[in-house]
Amino acid sequence: MTELIEITKPLKIGHERVCKCPQTHINCSNAKEWIQSQVAIWEFFYEKRDIRDKNIHPAVFPIGLPKKCIQLFTHQGELVLDPFVGIGTTLVAAFDLNRNAVGFDLKKEYVDFANKRVAQTKLDMWSEEPKNTTQIAVCDEAHNIPEYLEPETVALAVTSPPYANMLNRPRLNKSIRGDLRKNEHFLKVQQYSADPRDLGTMEPRKYAQVIGEIYKGILPLLKPKAHSIINVTDIWWKDDKFGRRIPVHVYIIEEMEKAGYELRNIIIWDRRNLVNKVGIFGWPSNYITLGTTFEYILDFWNPP
Length: 304
Ligand SMILES: C[S@@+](CC[C@H](N)C(=O)[O-])C[C@H]1O[C@@H](n2cnc3c(N)ncnc32)[C@H](O)[C@@H]1O
Prior knowledge:
By secondary structure, the chain is of the alpha/beta class. It has a domain at 31-166 and 204-232 and 248-272 and 296-301: Vaccinia Virus protein VP39 (Rossmann fold), CATH 3.40.50.150. 22% of the residues lie in helices and 19% in strands. It has helices at 31-37, 64-73, 89-96, 108-123, 204-218, 248-258, and strands spanning 41-42, 79-82, 100-105, 135-139, 154-159, 222-232, 235-237, 244-246, 262-270, 294-301. The strands form 2 sheets. The protein has an 8-stranded mixed sheet, sandwiched between helices. Helix 3 (89-96) links the parallel strand 2 and strand 3 (100-105). It is globular, with a radius of gyration of 19 Å. It starts with 30 loop residues before the first helix and ends with a strand. The site of S-adenosylmethionine has 23 residues, from strand 3.
């Protein structure tokens, strides 16, 4: 069984491979699984354990997303980092795959939930095998991550940060049609917190700069050639009749490159299976694609 570890600086958490894969292999998969992973468009389905209640957290990704990244870029026993861990989806995925994992979040309520969620996951019937890895959420601001981890110990950083100040405006429920759109969340502002260090309070350029700063601090913690995945979407800003696309994913790529990372892959998360009866926007004169139908999964690495 895994145990909740004491929060120390640095943390005492495992990071060494426990599988018998050849040293040169980037992951534990076989050639067939590798071929399947080469497709640049990914789709995920929510499972029972996924938490979709927006009253618990307004923006949670499916367990399948970090799971796929962890399978692609780590071996059993290695250490996964999620700098913006929310309610711990990455930790659950890491537990399933027998990887050590640590996540950080500004908000204590989310961190407490994440740690309880991991504890519950260990008790669930899904976790049939005994595992000797640890998954933990720590309440701290992401700039402070280097205080907790030793250099060159992290095999993968995977996260979905806030999408700049996207949630800092009334929710329009664009992926839902008709009366269903006016559910309990309609027109509510669901930001994570009003803390000025919260990336969700920052306008997009400033936000991307701060992400760059945080990831500059994380770079020395990554093993050489370790990957760093950021799931993000662009923002549609409606400040006039036509609205404007804010290419947040481009800003992030620019800042990550300044911080010393190299972009390796851009993957599209095809979310059409999660979008429910979309309404009509922009017709007949202003063509805009629906942001809710896809997101970016940006894959960088610590260049050798
Ligand atoms: C999109 S959510 C992550 C959700 C997560 N993937 C999950 O499935 O639970 C982004 C998180 O970043 C946290 N956050 C925002 N700014 C932060 C900062 N400067 N340092 C640490 N966490 C921060 C927010 O509290 C929020 O929970």
